[in-house]
């Protein structure tokens, strides 16, 4: 007869922008057992494929590459077997000059166990009509070194990076597919010769991966801009024109083409906040302030991702009554100090209503159910009144937080307000 709280499953959300990325191939059954049988049952953990994931994290504007992360069964000895090969294979878009219809990247070891990471073309499969097979059937032809490679047999994690320009005969990009993607391994086999599925130590089913482009992943590493605010003059008699200058606001990612795109000024006198692309604005105070003055605040957002500043810049304006001034209107203040989510549960970015019964420094933070601090929403002097805080569903590192239940805490002096928010996909 009673409704229970909705608690969505928590955990990281797989994305092509964060390694290991999206699952391309799995060699595991639904119950967690290996999907292996017959001649393709791996004789050693180091060649037992569990999964292959692919990612394209943003590292620099000029970096366009795919990160392949292969999970093998962890080795009990911690030793990489010699004279062995681990191949990741996918279809070429067009045939190579020698008839190769596939591309590969792989790790191989020589007789001493030394590792190398290479890429190249992979010859066509054996014909099914009984005709004479081409000389390079199921045979890899190395073309060069991969851009990076590592293998930790203890954890079973193999990582290989390959530039987009090496994924096919011509460079691939966002929207292209690595189709018929599969993994096959060979334990203690000669490096030369065919690498067909029939003689593989282990082989997976085919999968597919659609490239997103590293540039599209910039917002997962985007750093929040920093708001800065100056004003002149900061005191005088009403009517008092004040020039606000936010040109000291900065963006940490300016080197990669990001910057501050918009400035939101709240003048603290009850007038409507103004959002604009220019860092300077003039505002006239027509009423006298209280003894604590007007606290003008500024938040900014960046150009590439629309990410809001984590800080709120502020400055105090003292306005005295002038001969033509209108007497200060009495402020209607909230009755209680509180913070409340606006829209709960929320899908991604959300807002909070913050009510302050007195002026002062306010600190707002977000916590996970286990008490870990996830995000800092505000740490600034704020005037009494009702305010709106925006949160982009990002953690302190600028990464998207997973769905789940979070606790938001506002603190000002000896006052504390807590509220719960549910974030869903």
How many extended strands? Answer: 28
Radius of gyration: 30 Å
Q: Which blocks of ≥5 consecutive residues have pLDDT under 50?
A: 1-7
Terminal CA distance: 28 Å
Number of helices: 0
Q: Kindly state the mean pLDDT as a whole number?
A: 91
The helix/strand class is mainly beta
Helical residue percent? under 10%
Portion in strands: 35-45%
Assembly type of the chains comes to: single chain
The helix/strand order is EEEEEEEEEEEEEEEEEEEEEEEEEEEE
For the report, how would you describe the main beta sheet?
7 strands, antiparallel
Overall shape: it is elongated
Question: Would you kindly provide a written description of the structure presented here, covering whatever features stand out?
Answer:
This protein has strands spanning 22-26, 49-55, 65-72, 85-91, 102-109, 115-122, 140-145, 148-152, 157-163, 177-186, 202-203, 207-210, 230-232, 235-237, 240-245, 260-266, 274-276, 280-285, 294-302, 313-320, 338-342, 346-347, 350-356, 360-367, 373-382, 385-391, 404-412, 415-424. The protein contains no helices and 28 strands. It has 425 residues and is mostly beta strands. A hairpin with a 2-residue loop joins β27 (404-412) and β28 (415-424). Strands 4, 5, 6, 7, 10, 11 and 12 form a seven-stranded antiparallel β-sheet that branches. It has a five-stranded antiparallel β-sheet with strand order 1-2-3-9-8, with no helix packed on it. The protein has a five-stranded mixed β-sheet with strand order 14-20-19-16-17, with no helix packed on it.
